[in-house]
Design brief:
This protein has helices at residues 12-15, 42-49, 107-111, 115-127, 144-155, 167-176, 189-196, 211-219, 242-248, 260-263, 265-280, 297-306; strands spanning 2-6, 16-20, 30-39, 66-70, 75-78, 90-94, 99-100, 135-139, 159-164, 180-183, 202-207, 221-229, 251-254, 288-293, 312-316. Strands 3, 4, 5, 6, 7, 14 and 15 form a 7-stranded mixed β-sheet that branches. Strands 10-9-8-11-12-13 form a 6-stranded parallel β-sheet, sandwiched between helices. The two termini are 20 Å apart. By secondary structure, it is α/β, with parallel strands linked by helices. 51% of the residues are buried.
Length: 322
């Protein structure tokens, strides 16, 4: 089969190589899955760089989110068992973790429903306790993770303010349904949020960026607001001033969604059932900006790493049909 493999750590576009290799062999409790679509995530870039919390042995195949078909014909969503990631024709996955792919979504959309939307749902509902009528501020609102949070925030009845970088991404964020879009390159985020909220600030901040985005969030978060730390796409991990959190009465809340797979797998399945229902009703629909052939996977991962993409880029290997 074909698979993209990483033999040394570095930038995705430099270290990912498309090779012929053997199919992975399922272990106890695992199944072989033919890949129909593999979604590109920022962690794929971190894996290539050797900066992710999980460091598979070299060589490995990146790709953490897949829609595929089992040998008995089930269409499923899987998180592949590394080092055999999703940018390949076949992966292995734990049988217990398989989730049915939603009928309302095609392969590429289904592949993009899993990690980003689970992260958004657990972050907004379980960690930040977002309430109807509250104001949600979403950084990188036109990206894969941010676009999911925008849709889920709207579904929860929140007023959604999206922060983006550039006019093209601003158009995407408006189409997603943001009540207000702020272009961080030409507008003052703090001033715009305070003006939009009558000086109160955002009740919940969804931050997959870190760095300057986090610093600005602390200046426009509401009394008893919650800053949800999801990731550090900027490459800068903030050092929070806890005295500031004390003075302003806000919470800094962390989310590592992957822990729920081991700590509370039943909650993951319940969340998937809810996301499937939202997809069936048309309330959420992954923003798939591009569907690329297998040969373009390295370029796709590099563009996500560089922050130049919008929505989701999905790789369609040999088994991909849509």
């Amino acid at each position: 089969m074909q698979a993209w493999r990483v033999h040394r750590n570095g930038e995705p576009g430099e270290v990912m190589r498309l090779e012929e290799t053997d199919r992975p062999a399922p272990g106890d409790g695992q199944v072989l899955v033919e890949v129909r679509a593999a979604n590109v995530n920022f962690p794929d870039a971190l894996l290539c760089r050797g900066q992710y919390q999980v460091r598979p042995p070299l060589p490995f195949t990146p790709g953490v989110e897949v829609c595929g078909t089992t040998e008995d014909g089930r269409r499923v969503l899987v998180t592949p068992a590394l080092p055999h990631g999703g940018f390949a024709d076949f992966v292995v996955a734990d049988e217990a973790a398989l989730l049915p792919a939603p009928d309302a979504l095609d392969d590429a959309e289904a592949a993009a429903l899993h990690i980003g939307y689970q992260t958004g749902w657990f972050g907004l509902h379980r960690r930040a306790r977002l309430q109807p009528g509250e104001t949600l501020l979403v950084h990188a609102a036109a990206g894969g993770v941010g676009s999911a949070a925008v849709q889920l925030g709207r579904a929860a009845g929140a007023k959604v303010i999206g922060v983006v970088g550039g006019p093209e991404k601003a158009v995407v964020a408006r189409e997603l349904g943001c009540d207000l879009v702020i272009d961080r390159r030409s507008e003052d985020i703090v001033a715009a949020v305070k003006e939009a909220t009558g000086g109160r600030g955002a009740d919940v901040v969804y931050d997959p960026v870190g760095g300057d985005a986090y610093a600005k969030s602390t200046k426009c978060v509401a009394f008893e607001g919650r800053i949800l730390v999801v990731g550090f796409a900027s490459g800068v991990i903030p050092a929070p001033g806890l005295n500031h959190a004390l003075v302003k009465n806000y919470s800094v809340v962390g989310l590592h969604w992957g822990l729920y797979n081991t700590k509370d797998p039943a909650a993951v399945r319940a969340c998937h059932a809810e996301l499937t229902e939202l997809a069936a009703r048309g309330v959420v629909k992954p923003l798939v900006s591009e569907r690329v052939e297998m040969t373009r996977a390295a370029d796709a991962v590099q563009r996500v790493a560089d922050g130049t993409s919008t929505g989701r880029i999905v790789v369609l290997p040999t088994g991909g049909t849509r």
